[in-house]
């Protein structure tokens, strides 16, 4: 069955193509159903491949399906090939699974939009690109998918392009991603020049056997991390993600919660042997950036009032956790958190979309409140998502976060403290959000006339097509933790499954204090979560303590403005200098050569003055010179 | 009979022909009258003929004299054509000066 | 033969042209309109003489007896040995060049006749 692996990306590509040609004719909602059928079919193929891999022994779970030879040039041989191994199939499963659910949701959410079929075209194209990214057998096929998701992200963020802010946000996302892509490209070139191949098996083999010098491994690893920073919105390059909320909510759920932003973590895990072969401080850099980002974003989320912006910063923060895990050598924990995060973050985004839909596209939380009774299903699923992300057992988020904190403690206690503080803040701001939206006073009553002015504006529950994915995701958020329970080695399903991919790079902490006392850490995590929730209740629920939302946090530490000043001022000066150099020096050299030739020719031309005697004289001089040369050639 | 008799070696002939050749070359460069220039060219050709004959005699090779035969034929043909050209050009002009024919300048 | 060709044909030709055109007035050699021409001519002349003489003198040892040998016309019985050898050479080894040069003469004559025609309105170049 694994030979049908090519169907996985081919189906969404086919869907995109059909929609491109026939989309408008199919119209709403048929194009939506057709588009949704593609990832569902891909999901079924992925499940069959999964069972096929499961039936093999652990060492044999590695199959390459080569589609065709792409670049056979000299020493460079790159094929378009797909790799089926535990890591890629795990990613493919949840990409197609959650992708299908979001396609179904979008049929309801985008109802009435004039560009309905185009939306699904882009969604299918995105699923195709993401699958190429994770299934790629070498860095170039992954890069193809990498760029593809960047492009689709641009299309989808600026979907309502008539809105200025949406168009600008799309551009910002694309340009920031490009900076990261530069890192990935340079890493590819470096890998090819030192190892002679860009295929994962060759690179990881070389890293295992020590062929790669630590310097090279560090360079490759950190360059790929630059790319991951761009794609997964880590600290210097995160600023596109909050602005990306301009896109429709299904886009935010699919791209910016579950799939595209996790591609950075995926790439790091894929190249884990390279990270393992690099200097000691390189993974530490990754961990520190991840921790800093997590804390930074969590502080900002505390002061946001737009329902989607809170979730956006929350995503940045949770991605920081994943990179913290990668930097501490806890690849299994990172993947675990990636999967559970996909479940509950998609759930939260879709839930917020349902709220927005019911509130007639109002997104400011200060104008919501007491929606629990009017939107019961949305409220219950959102609350399940909240409990999962806040780290309350037995929901999925608790187990994955605890696993990460365990490894981080074994790595560095300072980072552990940062992780704990972030967990506290996460619980706090998510509780704040839930209270502001679903509990409290019904503030929307004051603003009833702002929306279409029916007079009797009342938020309503969403249609069933939108509620169905919410329920499924809520169920997964509840039981998702069963993948990797810490209680006994036998329950470490995910770890056993991913073993062939990361066995040598995974940090071994079985002899550390953290491992011996993991139940203590478990209890600490529960206490932190409870403290955060209680604090938020005290501030926003019972109003016992005054809310602290300083402006600096609301303006995201003025990061955006700072970046704009940097690029606009010295940045622009640098760009102008480069442009000047290009026009003067490069063009000047080319034009200068032509001018030189012309000038010399016009001088030489003067010798043609029409007088025969002058020509004769020159000939005679030439003859004498030749004579002299022949004569003195023998002498000298 | 006169005492010291010097036998002319081939080298003398060659030196003579070199002198003739140079005189002819200088004449072509310095004189402006087209007929005189032509005669100087003939002089150069004859100097070459002398060289060929001398070397042919010194090396006992008949090829030297054969070449002279052909050089003379070609020189005759060249004179014929050249004088024809001069006649057709100079018919229209009063003064004869090669420097006046500079229309082909670049 | 040289005397016949040159004194008989070529010089007479020159004479005819001079008579036709009246170009016997020599140019004024005091002035030289082209700058540097005299200098170049001087250099060329001296260089030519000097170099050729040097070449000849230095190579005088290389002139050795070679080839088929020419019977000494004075000392030998056959007074026409030279002519015979020349004729042999022209009509066997170099017969192709011989034919070509005869064609050349014809072409030269025809061309010159055409060139020197007066334009009498018959429209020839």
Structural summary, described in words:
The complex is a heterotrimer of chains A (636), B (106) and C (125). Chain A is mainly alpha-helical. Chain A is built from 25 helices and 2 strands. In chain A, strands 1-2 form a two-stranded antiparallel sheet. The mean pLDDT of chain A is 84. Chain B has one domain (10-95): Helix Hairpins (Orthogonal Bundle). Chain B is 70% helix and 0% strand. The radius of gyration of chain B is 18 Å and the shape is elongated. By secondary structure, chain C is mainly α. Helices cover 61% and strands 0% of the residues of chain C. Chain C contains 4 helices and no strands. Chains in contact: A-B, A-C, B-C. Chains B and C meet through helix 1, helix 2 and helix 3 of B and helix 1, helix 2, helix 3 and helix 4 of C.
Q: Report the major sheet of chain C.
A: none
Residue runs with pLDDT of under 50 for 5 or more positions of chain C: 65-75, 121-125
Radius of gyration of chain A using CA atoms only: 30 Å
Number of strands of chain C: 0
Question: Total helix count of chain A?
Answer: 25
> What helical percentage do the residues of chain C reach?
55-70%
- Arrangement of strands in the largest sheet of chain A: 1-2
Roughly how much helix do the residues of chain A carry, as a percent range? Answer: over 70%
Q: How much is the average pLDDT of chain A?
A: 84
Q: Which two chains share the most extensive interface?
A: B-C, 59 and 64 residues
Annotation, overall tally of beta strands of chain A: 2
Q: Helical stretch count of chain C? A: 4
Structural class of chain A: mainly alpha
* Beta-strand percent range of chain A: under 5%
What sequence of helices (H) and strands (E) makes up the elements of chain C? HHHH
Describe what is shown at a glance.
The complex is a heterotrimer of chains A (636), B (106) and C (125). Chain B is mainly alpha-helical.
Q: How would you summarize the topology of this molecule?
A:
The complex is a heterotrimer of chains A (636), B (106) and C (125).
Chain A: H1 7-26, H2 30-54, E1 63-73, E2 76-84, H3 86-109, H4 116-135, H5 139-157, H6 164-195, H7 200-208, H8 214-231, H9 240-243, H10 249-258, H11 263-270, H12 272-276, H13 281-301, H14 307-327, H15 331-358, H16 376-390, H17 396-411, H18 413-438, H19 464-479, H20 493-502, H21 513-516, H22 518-541, H23 551-554, H24 559-604, H25 612-635
Antiparallel strand pairs in A: 1-2
Helix pairs in contact in A: 1-2, 1-4, 2-3, 2-4, 3-4, 3-10, 3-15, 3-19, 4-5, 5-6, 6-8, 8-11, 10-15, 13-14, 13-18, 14-15, 14-17, 14-18, 15-16, 15-17, 15-19, 16-18, 16-19, 17-18, 17-22, 18-22
Chain B: H1 10-30, H2 34-58, H3 63-90
Chain C: H1 2-21, H2 37-58, H3 81-93, H4 95-115
Helix pairs in contact in C: 3-4
